[in-house]
Design goal:
seven-stranded mixed beta sheet, mainly beta, four-stranded antiparallel beta sheet, 11 strands
């Protein structure tokens, strides 16, 4: 059974940085997809970043490029999201998601498995 646990959410000032972590278990494929999406109250899910574990391929929507970086530690089986130059519009619940093959990082909002989320609040 796949289990994802996010940590690292916090309240920060605009311009600040945060690193989110997602501890994963139960994923046993040679390659699979993991990623992050976010959802603010009253808004649709928005993909933030996706990666194919085992293929070292990453995906970012154009709006996220340059400020957010996704990475994965295979030894710890932990996914990270480094967020820099945060803006108030980045305020949302951030979710870690995963899916076995076949999968594509672009579809992170539709991945089969997701965690409970971690709240990021950016104040101006």
């Amino acid at each position: 059974q796949v289990h994802l646990v996010e940590t690292g959410g916090a309240s920060v000032q605009a311009g600040g940085s945060l690193r989110l972590s997602c501890a994963a278990s139960g994923l046993s494929h040679n390659y699979y997809c993991m990623g992050w999406f976010r959802q603010a109250p009253g808004k649709e899910r928005e993909g933030v970043a996706g990666t194919i574990i085992g293929a070292d391929r990453t995906y970012y929507p154009d709006s996220m490029k340059g400020r957010f970086t996704i990475s994965h530690d295979r030894v710890k089986n932990t996914l990270y999201l480094q967020m820099n130059s945060l803006k108030p519009e980045d305020t949302a619940m951030y979710y870690c998601a995963a899916q076995g093959p076949p999968c594509f990082g672009e579809y992170v909002t539709e991945f089969t498995y997701r965690g409970q989320g971690t709240q990021v609040t950016v104040s101006s």
